[in-house]
Design brief:
Blueprint: E1 14-20, H1 24-38, E2 42-48, H2 54-64, E3 67-70, H3 82-99, E4 103-106, E5 120-123, H4 128-135, H5 142-157, E6 160-163, H6 166-176, E7 183-184, E8 203-206, H7 216-225, E9 230-233, E10 250-253, H8 257-265, E11 269-272, H9 281-288, E12 293-296, H10 299-305, E13 310-312, H11 317-329, H12 331-345, H13 350-365
Parallel strand pairs: 1-2, 1-4, 2-3, 4-5, 5-6, 6-7, 8-9, 8-11, 9-10, 11-12, 12-13
Helix pairs in contact: 1-13, 7-11, 9-12, 11-12
Length: about 375
Amino acid sequence: MRVLLSPSRTPAPHVLMSADAVGGVWQYSLDLAAGLIRQGLAVTVAVLGPAPSEARIAAAQADTGACIRVTGLPLDWTAETPGAVLDAAAALARLAREIGADLVHLHSPAMALADFSVPVAAVCHSCVATWWDAVETGPLPADLAWRHDLTARGCRAADALLAPTRAHALATARVCGLAQPPVVVRNGRAPRSVPQRAAVPVAFTAGRLWDRAKNATALDRLAGRLSVPLRAAGSVGGPNGARVETRHLQLLGRLDDAGIAAELAGRPVFVSLARYEPFGLAALEAAASGCALVLSDRPGFRELWDGAAAFVGADDDAAAAKAVQALLDDPARREAAGAAAADRAARYGVEAMTEGVLGVLHGLLAGGPARLGGAAA
């Protein structure tokens, strides 16, 4: 394990980490914050966008040891104007100075467009341009084009860029015109302690169902083909006004950690037919619980799960139904597939993620190379 700083330095370095509570970034941020705190750092998590409930905040602070600040600032993909994004970035810079942060770890490169006066690392979790390439056709509409411009500029302003898979790092470099891709530090999840029960004959999916990238319409068609329920955790309406209608999915609404753990304890067959998935924390959680995986054949999923999952076309609900049903009809095959997924999931733990991020932060504090994703010539 790398050590960030020599023991002689006091007090501990303080990291300001931005986050949102809409999707997987929230869990990523909490897991990373806990990992950094275990390594002796202090962490403040600044939440942008819709605020978590007071109960979620209290639980997160108790679980991680981080200080969580709800800012009321907009997300880069929900802000109404470029000025609103730049104002949010400036507000984060003021917060960094207020708390005496030594480093800033941003959940979005667009938020790097301010004078932070300390080293800034930004994570390319996703962006509108790579999303559009995977989900839509034609040029970016004006409302997304200015967001992409801010993201590309932010990539150049940050002192280091990270991405959760090589596939997404390369896609980000391509759309943002970077000379080299972000550093790959794979996401990780801590293993759940909920005891498993006998495998139940159902399929399961989780995610932002309202997001067209998650392809809920194909999941709904798949559900109509199965002889068992396809249980779906997640919201059907998003903070940007997007909404999806379904007929066959067994909708569970948005579940908390305990609710997800309860679903995964029965080791359902986990399905994702996402058209765009830079990493896929839901698939990782399912795999770590011993669930067999049926995934869309996307570059990121292949990179992480090749040899440990069944792959189908994102819109081929017939092939997906065949793959799911084959696992449900053959308990031994399902158990073997779940074991293979769990074995692969062990590679993607919180400690490995923390070590990777620490390596980047250590380089920044030591005056290492800046602007790892600098502009292409």
